[in-house]
Amino acid sequence: MRFRNVVINIFTSGKSLSYEKYKEEKVQESGVSDYLLRYILLNFIHIFGSVILIIFVFQNITMKAYFDAIACLFLAFVLITDFIISRTKVPQIVPAVISTISFGLFCILVIWKGDAQGAGFLFIFLYPILTIILTGMANGIIFSAVLLAVVIVEFFVPGAGHFKYPLDVSLRMIAVYILLSGTTLVFESSRRTKDKINKKLMEKINGINENLHNIVEERTQKIVKLQNSILKTMSNLVEYRDFVTGEHVERTQYGVNLLLDEIKKQNLFVEIMNNWDTSLILQSVQLHDVGKIAISDIILNKPSKLTEEEYEKMKEHAVFGFKIIERIEADSGESELLNHAKIFALTHHERWDGTGYPMGLHGNYIPLQGRIMSIADVYDALISERPYKKAFPREEAVKIIIDGKGTQFDPVLTDLFVNICGKL
């Protein structure tokens, strides 16, 4: 592990980058196609080079050229090891540099033995192309120049190689090598220039998209804020008619929010609440009593107990609320917020035992929104002073809610209310 870290540090200028980080940076820098091209070439050198070197090992052993056999065996071992390293989470530059050095040593061995013709000729001329693509222009120029210097030494310095190449062959090979290196650099430079232009265009497009996203986000926030303000104003107008301040809406919102958090904490009703947006739920809570706008002031503001007939009229506010929201929905289009609001308005006076109104639903037939709202609404009504009653102490209000478990309120939600009532 320590050796691997040292290798990474050497070939990444002291920056030990993770494989994922390096890959991400390279893909962003040069594009997916360029990264894949390098990856394919690297694997080609590993596999094809190892096979060729192993063949040369057996050929040299047959010819009793043991030094050459050992040299080829060593290079094959390096390539196979490099292939294994490339499968680990190291930057791609590490196996690329090792392969480039190994391939360069092989070319030097080919020239030194006098095999720089045929296949050996091809390997040497492939070197600058593969090196520049694998390691980049700067590193590629350095590696190609080093091999060129070694080639010149072996061609023109007496005794530097086992084989004396004719002068015209040597000059022709050096000229072709320089020509291929220069051509590769021109193509690589053009490709990189094109990549830079494409990158700048993408950055400009991304900047425009981000700006549009910010504009849309800002407009959306303004619309949501306006929508919430309108909802709050509507709910407050209703509450003021009932001699109750707008704090009733805020307190019931807070109670519903606490119950929702506790439900999520206990991992309950997961299938029902899977797609619920809490912010929309809390906004829609504000309209739970909007139907009271259709109830007579005489009934709403009566300072004494309602008669049976008046109570029946009062109970109609749940249906009126549903119809008002349904009318808004018909004009503005269906929305998740209004759908929740309709359910809150219609079902927050239903009881677990089926004796509630307006539909007499019971148990799980009552939508979860109505069951949650029922507890928050009744608790706030108990602790609030009204023209016809005094406010109950908090402890007594909590006891009334608990006593209503299984009759007025959902037993599971009642238990959750016990957990959060201290925060109310």
CATH homologous superfamily classification of the largest domain: Hypothetical protein af1432
Measured as a percent range, the helix fraction is over 70%
For the record, the count of structural domains works out to: 2
Shape: rod-shaped
CATH architecture of the largest domain: Orthogonal Bundle
Our Rg estimate from Cα atoms comes to 40 Å
Summing up helix and strand content along with how strands pair, one would put the structural category as mainly alpha
CATH topology of the largest domain: Hypothetical protein af1432
Low-confidence stretches: 1-23
How would you characterize the largest beta sheet? Answer: none
Annotation field: number of helices: 18
The amount of beta strand, in percent, is under 5%
CATH class of the largest domain: Mainly Alpha
Q: Please provide the ordered H/E string of secondary-structure elements.
A: HHHHHHHHHHHHHHHHHH
Whole-number average pLDDT?
Answer: 77
| Beta strand count | 0
Describe the structure.
The structure is a single chain. By secondary structure, the chain is mostly helical. It has two domains: 194 residues, no CATH class; 210 residues, Hypothetical protein af1432 (Orthogonal Bundle), CATH 1.10.3210.10. Helix content is 74%, strand content 0%. The chain contains 18 helices and no strands. α3 packs parallel to α5 and α9 crosses α16. The chain is rod-shaped and about 125 Å long. The N terminus is likely disordered.
